[in-house]
Amino acid sequence: MVTSASHITDLPAEVLHNVFAWLDPASVLTSARVSRLFRDLIVGNGTLWRDVYLLKMDTPAPVEGIEWEQETLDLIKLDTIFHSTTTQDVDLSQLEFVANTCIRILSRASHTNSLENLYSGSPSANVAYLQSLFGDGITGMAFLQQSGLFEHIRSGKTWYGRGVNTPGEIRRKRQLSAKLHVLYGQPILNYGRTRSCKTHPYAVSRVYDIRGFTEENRWGPWNNDGTVDWEKVEAINIVLGKNVKGRWPGGKIFDEVWDCPFGGAYRGAFVPKTEPDDDELDDLDKRDPYGVSGSWYRIVCFLDYSDFFHFNFTTRNVPDSVAMPPLHAGEATRLIIMEVKVVRIEPPGPDDHPSWPVVHYEGESRSLDDIFDDNANSDLRAELSLVNKGTVRMTKGLDVRWTSVSVFDGQERWASEGVQVGGPKSARGVLGTWFDRDHDPHGPAGPTAFWKARDQEDPRRALREGVRIVRGDPSWVGHLLGDDEDEGEEVGVEGMMVFEDDIEEDLGSMEEGEMDGLLEDQEREVADLAGGPGNGPSSS
């Protein structure tokens, strides 16, 4: 006669292992407190904790050296912290733990080759987990808003400490929060309990402050020691994200980069629709670990030079320790398509990571904005006599550094420095700065970003698709009338000057069919913009 076990503790250890492996991490930890038997089966059992972790998360590569129990306990702690329901309940003393753990989780994200994916990255359990974690809109946002930029906003002061003399521990926490915000991707444009404070003017002030462009930081988003200045990258992301939202609302090629939390911000996230066969790749592309060759979208923003000069040089005797006040000034935005090709691969230099090569590239760029812009149709090439131009390399801190110079009429004109967010072959792309190739101390300079285009994608058609998508959404009209500006502030839109308070009145007074006409005009305008090159120092 076969008798059933009278209690779960009578089950064989192998069966209990399989039972625990299907529980969520918190339940496994709770089970360890039920009995001594369960505790002995669970605590210190790396194989069990690995199974519990992998049921919820991506399989990291490589898996050697991972402390599975500690990694899973960190997930439990992270979930507990994010259960806070009000801003007052958020334990900001946990910022370093939260940021480091989330960054580590994202760095271990992997993907499938499913075609049912966002362009910004194939499905990832780690990304989905982080998206759910930050989806509450309270706890996650609090940890994303601890950089110096948000402290400047919270201070309510026009003039605020720039951070050059900030103690190391405070600066480290600010940098971690900024890095987490950049990896999150979706820039926080409105801040405060009522979301009435705009972050953009503070970010503009930081990005265009010429004091932030020095020989020591290579005029780029770097600290003097060669590490990434994530607070500067955060400001760049806010400036570009706001300008893209205002100019191309609903544009698919932009939303998948600036409107998908954590999307594509990890190594190897860019997945071509069709993987080329080895015999279709030349030797250089096979050896290139960064995935350089191909088509890249690029965004460049810049101030009118009179605004740039007035902001930087008419206010005298501003101490280096003091940040410039928020800047309310309009910017021009240019969209570029770059076609680049690897031309040479060299061993790493003394300032590079010893395990990663230096890849040189050449190519061409053309504008998608204005057919009369000669700058946007310049050659983009690797400068043979200058080491740091037209190259992709890995820093000692394992950050991917892009440098380039644009050539117009045979002369080098604009240069740029950037960091690839998420690592090599990330779909999130590169954020950085452009500037005068000779580092003119009077500028100009500004922010830029570029990210890889899908296989065989027609950029002009992609822009038109974005317009068609938003055309039927009445909220889009707010973008045309400037509803993302400060209340009561005058904003210019295609020659119109309107007040936010008058938007409803303006819309209510439209004759029948006038709304459709406005949208059709805007669709034709974007179609025209998509039909040819544009203005500005856009291909640097």
From TrEMBL:
Gene3D superfamilies: 1.20.1280.50
InterPro entries recorded: F-box-like_dom_sf, F-box_dom
CDD domains from the UniProt entry: F-box_SF
SUPFAM superfamilies: F-box domain
Pfam name, any one: F-box-like
Domain spans labelled F-box: 5-52
Region Disordered: start-end pairs: 438-457
The protein's name in its UniProt record: F-box domain-containing protein
Source species of the chain: Emericellopsis atlantica
